Structure formats: C-alpha cells, structure tokens
C-alpha cells in the first residue's frame, strides 16, 4: 500500500524498511522472532562492530541489537494493549490463539467493534517485554480523513 501525501513538505518516503529492537539476550530474542513469529535470519553487514542480528519476513525487517548493559533495561511484565507495539496481520486469530496456548505464551485478547465490523487482537511480549499485536485488522476499512492520491486499501465513500 502506498499513500502519496498531498501535504507540502512531507518527506518522499516509500515504505517501512525495518524495526530495530535492543534486547537483553540476542540469543533469546533470535529464538522468539524465528520460532514464534516466523522470521528468518539474513546476512548482516560485517562492518558493524557491535553484536546483533537481522531478520526478515512478511515484507518487514527486524534488526536485533544486543544491549550494552542488559540489566539496565526496564522490565515489563504486564501486557498492556495501550503500550507501544508492532502489529502483525494474521489469517486466523483462532489458530494463532491455539498456537500461543500450545507454546505457553501469555497473551491478552481484545475485541474491537466498529459499525458491525469486528477485529480480534492478541497481545504478547517478546523476551524483553516489547509488545506485539497479532490481529485481523484488515477487517476495518482504511478511510482517509482527507484526500489522498493512492491507497489500495482505501474505501472511498
């Protein structure tokens, strides 16, 4: 989906390239992002002089960076759907919920209703407490509040 902004002065961006996450344990985070979320490790430039890993899937890059002082990182235990998070679209929230139960991964389930359209959201934490949402958010149409040029998901009224 590409939106062409009509706002004067907006940066000429093309897409999201990657999300970067600082982690307490690179090994634990790699395990989570690969075995829970299905990302694949990809080649990372050898010129970096710090420990990290690059992952890719679903058209999204995730860069994991080993924290210099892991013990100083804040610890989150409560899953709060109103906290900072990234969100992944899924085909079946029921299947994801079943898999989370099988993997003994704690989650919070929320349901949003807008004009008869329902969206189910599952919120989980990565090993460092960063929140991840898994949802069927594509059920809600993207309706611009101002004119735009191009957007494949836009429902024009």
List the helices and strands and how they pair.
Elements: E1 18-23, H1 26-35, E2 40-42, E3 52-57, E4 60-66, E5 85-89, H2 93-102, E6 108-114, E7 117-125, E8 131-135
Parallel strand pairs: 1-4, 5-8
Antiparallel strand pairs: 2-3, 3-4, 6-7, 7-8
Key words describing this protein structure:
alpha/beta, 157 residues, 4-stranded mixed β-sheet, globular
What would your notes on this structure say?
The chain has 157 residues and is of the alpha/beta class. The chain is built from two helices and eight strands, in the order E-H-E-E-E-E-H-E-E-E. The strands form two sheets. The chain has a four-stranded mixed β-sheet with strand order 1-4-3-2, covered by helices on one side. Strands 5-8-7-6 form a four-stranded mixed β-sheet, with helices on one face. The longest helix is centred in the first third of the chain and has 10 residues, at 26-35. It starts with 17 loop residues before the first strand and ends in a 22-residue tail after the last strand.
